[in-house]
Amino acid sequence: EKHSFKHFMLKEIHEQPGVVRDCLQAYINSNWDLEFEAKTTDELHPATVDINQSPIELGLPDELLENLEQVQIIACGTSWHASLVGKYLLEQLADLPTTVEYASEARYAPSPLRPHTLIIGVTQSGETADTLAALSMEKQRRLNAPTQFKPRLLGITNRTESSLGQLVPHLINTRAGIEIGVAATKTFTAQVIAFYLLAIDLAWRRQTLSQSRVQELVKGLRKLPSQIELILNTQEAKIEDFSHQFSDTKDFIFLGRGINFPIALEGALKLKEISYIHAEGYPAGEMKHGPIALLDKDVPVVAIAMPGSVYEKVISNAQEAKARDAHLIGVTAKETLEESDVFNNILPVPLVDELLSPILAVIPLQLLAYYIAARRGLDVDQPRNLAKSVTVE
Ligand code: F6R
Fold first, then answer.
1. Its pTM surpasses 0.90
2. Assembly and partners (predicted)?
3. Is the Cβ–Cβ distance between 225 and 186 less than 8 Å?
4. Over the stretch 142-152, which tens digit does the pLDDT of each residue have?
């Protein structure tokens, strides 16, 4: 049921605050922060949780996660983008070298076997043929290998009863509810949340973060649902109006750096698959190595400029684009508006820890893609040539 929404995609975009809330509630020990805040246990109020335990409860066995040396992630499409955010988190929070492979490539060029590797298959449907085949290959070639190469397989999926569930012994259920729109929105957000939880849990186990940094991240995660709501409540009508000017646009460029580079890729994918406008996502610093030649007044550039380690760099890359007459749209935090008078238009999101910003930055990009496509009168939920799950190679 679409209820009052014109398309399932729009309904699913709006479901994201609830999806994030449910997922956090399911996997974060709800009393941990309170106990951590209090830090003491008195006779009258004995602690209900041990703050020396990880606040994250994914129900994964120690044998899967202990003594890891690296992580290898296999996925396609939007799930591959979520995995790139995951790589950033696993490396920066848990100090685990991580590779992210396209399943369709990994199948035919297996990487050298490395010991103590966690292999993660990410597929919302749990039915993507290439992802299943690549995972099954990894499983097979490790079965008869020496102990340190034994398969350690984990799936991240929205459908635990899927073929993925048969193939791998351990799953993180992203609990987003069934997604009908072909363009993934809420399942992407839920996958990224799963990676936050996994990375924090691994950071805890490997002692790569202080307890107070873990607490800060957990607190930040808990604020995300209301921050997504705020974007939806205050920006949707503006983005709908704003998107009208792109009805005849032929090309779009999306720029991001660091943890928001995958969001640039995702913004471009959403736009191309439902609006059929050619769109490319680039790491902003790569523009000068070729793609900047594409820019002129007819190519809008969306720059994701979230305050943090690469903020000034993105702003300066955006300025380079502006010097080529590009129409510049900034996805940025309100607090930095004055500094960013470089943008022709701003899609504001709340100011958060840079590490958590992808979850907010993707929301205006989903709305932008949706309203541009809807304005063109296209079948947003069933774009041409696409299927919800790709069960053939
Ligand atoms: C894009 C999209 C696809 C899927 C891809 C993988 O919006 O939906 O790119 O992400 O086909 O699908 P799953 O996650 O089911 O393996």
1. yes
2. Homodimer.
3. no
4. 998 999 999 99
